[in-house]
Specification:
This protein is an alpha+beta fold. It has one helix at 49-61, and strands spanning 19-24, 30-35, 42-46, 65-68. The chain is built from one helix and four strands. It has a four-stranded mixed beta sheet with strand order 3-2-1-4, with helices on one face.
C-alpha cells in the first residue's frame, strides 16, 4: 500500500503558510485538515455541508489559504 501526504502535493505558495483542505468523507460529512504555521496539524469533522462551509469561511476570514477537494 502506498501512502502519501496530500499536503506535499499542494502548490508551493501554500507550503509554509497556514492552510486547510476540505474533503468529503466516504461515510458522509466532511473532513477539514488544518495546518497552522508553527503548530501541529488539526482535524475537524463536520456532519453537514453547511457546517463545513461555515468552518471554511471562518478559516478564510482568518487569513488561511484553502483547498476544497471534490468527491
Amino acid at each position: 500500500m502506498m501512502h502519501f501526504d496530500l499536503f506535499e502535493l499542494l502548490p508551493d505558495r501554500m507550503r509554509g503558510k497556514s492552510h486547510y483542505i476540505v474533503s468529503p468523507r466516504w461515510c458522509g460529512g466532511f473532513l477539514i485538515e488544518i495546518r497552522r504555521a508553527g503548530y501541529p496539524p488539526e482535524t475537524v469533522f463536520c456532519e453537514t455541508r453547511g457546517a463545513a462551509n461555515r468552518a471554511r469561511q471562518a478559516l478564510s476570514d482568518a487569513g488561511f489559504i484553502g483547498f476544497v477537494r471534490e468527491g
